[in-house]
Target: D-malate dehydrogenase (decarboxylating)
Amino acid sequence: MTNHRIALVPGDGIGPEVLPPARQVLDAVGRRHGITFHYTSYDDWSCERHRREGAMMPEDGLDRLRDRDAILLGAVGHPDVPDHVSLWGLLIPIRRGFRQYVNLRPVRVFEGVDSPVRGARAGEVDLVVVRENTEGEYSRAGGRLHRGLPGEKAVQEAVFTRAGVTRVLDYAFGLAAARGGRVTSATKSNGLVHTMPFWDELVAERAAAHPGVPWEKEHIDALAAKFVLEPARYDVVVASNLFGDILSDLAAAVAGSIGIAPAANLNPERAFPSMFEPVHGSAPDIAGRGIANPLGAIGAAALMLDHLGHPAAAKDVTDAVAAVLATSDVRTPDLGGSATTGQFTEKLLTLL
Ligand code: GGG
Model:
């Protein structure tokens, strides 16, 4: 029997609605594979806490998570708290504090799911966005001047370091080698004159260190268009923090719904716990209605199983998801169905 200590951080909005299904799936597949999960839930780390106490999590929040094997997070954000305050109060400190510099966002089109895109057929679209996760455009460097005056201005600096870019590129090239695929690097070196030429130089350098892996670079605007027009041509797409965030939401929509996309915030060296989350946010428009799609969170749980050394259990989860979508019309409204979160989860659990 293998034991794992898992931190649950449900967060805001639909976060607390999608984590229980992920937990039910983990427990079911765990029974089959001899894995026991011991959960500690941090229900209070949220925008509600911020309103009450002025902080999304306690000051020693990272210390409380440090000895967990992994973190499963729901969603962050509430209309009453500015988005940059909630994100920088919970999600980003965890990513940075635990050196989770790879944000892995796999996207595939499932049989039985209608993609809004012509060229996106099941079995053909199977790509992974590797998003740089601890620097880049997500930066506190900059400031606002002359607030409220006609000359008011805001300056936002992006920070790219040789070490930070190199390590995520090496991860992407390694992943492409393992998949027998290729790397596409997102750039915008025609418009951004310092950071993106630097990014491109490092891509060329790391490509030379991985001679067996084919690669290309594409400007982010053209790449976004091609994600919609020809999504099947992509394999591993490596991108900066902001570009990767946008591309992975776009790719999830191409696959049918942002509600089905999972993400893994990885510390590849395993010096710290990694964090797993659905790509979607807190979705205040549907929170409390019981109709959130749990598949993003369940996919995140599968990525967590893989990271914890249980690839067969992870495959059981993704196979069960594929089977439900391919063989039944039980699905949540974002995928065109009328099932509640609970009804969909019950259906999935019959296969685990
Ligand atoms: N599932 C976590 C969540 O709430 N994500 C919403 C979001 O805005 N994320 C921004 C980011 O991943 O950088």
The first strand starts at residue 2 and ends at 11. The CA atoms of residues 40 and 276 lie 15 Å apart. The mean pLDDT is 97. The first helix runs from residue 15 to 33.
